[in-house]
Design brief:
Layout: H1 2-14, H2 16-20, E1 29-33, H3 38-64, H4 72-101, E2 108-112, H5 116-123, H6 131-154
Antiparallel strand pairs: 1-2
Helix pairs in contact: 3-4, 3-6
């Protein structure tokens, strides 16, 4: 029994150097996408947010006119409105993605890792310090809120995510 334990320990520790000896990343050069098209991308995403809010307003106003006791015919009519609005939001997202992908300045440029400070300064726009990430978060919250409203009104059941 002791032999088996010692053998297992020896085998396990023989693989440790391979697990701990991961190659170090090359920090001499950092490859980044050119930030020249960042304001254009932000403008496109801001327009997406404005357009998404129009469709979620339609969803929310339709949902507000219903209750859990609404007739199946009323819910079916509302379902058509919901489906149309969601399809429109999907189309907007696809068009926005295509527009951003079509922006010029896709060439990557190499910068020294030491210029990370200047890169961080460029990423914060004084006119809009929240930037792209916040706008995308607002879009997701807007869509999620509208979908939660649909789920609540139509009496649908959601299942929790299991990881």
């Amino acid at each position: 029994m002791k032999f088996l334990s010692l053998t297992s320990l020896a085998l396990a520790t023989s693989f440790m150097p391979f697990a701990l000896a991961a190659p170090a990343p090359n920090t001499d050069l950092v490859e980044r996408q050119s930030p020249a098209d960042a304001p254009a991308a932000l403008a496109i995403v801001n327009q997406l947010y404005v357009d998404v809010k129009k469709y979620t307003a339609t969803i929310n106003s339709t949902a507000a006119s219903l209750s859990k006791t609404s007739s199946p015919a009323q819910k079916a009519a509302a379902g058509k409105t919901f489906k149309s609005a969601i399809a429109s939001i999907n189309t907007l997202v696809v068009k926005t993605t295509s527009s951003i992908k079509a922006l010029p300045g896709k060439a990557s440029v190499k910068r020294d890792a030491e210029s990370a400070e200047t890169l961080a300064v460029r990423q914060v726009n004084p006119a809009d310090p929240t930037g792209l990430a916040t706008t995308l978060t607002l879009i997701l919250l807007e869509i999620g809120g509208a979908l939660n409203n649909i789920i609540a009104i139509l009496g649908l059941i959601t299942s929790p995510l299991v990881f």
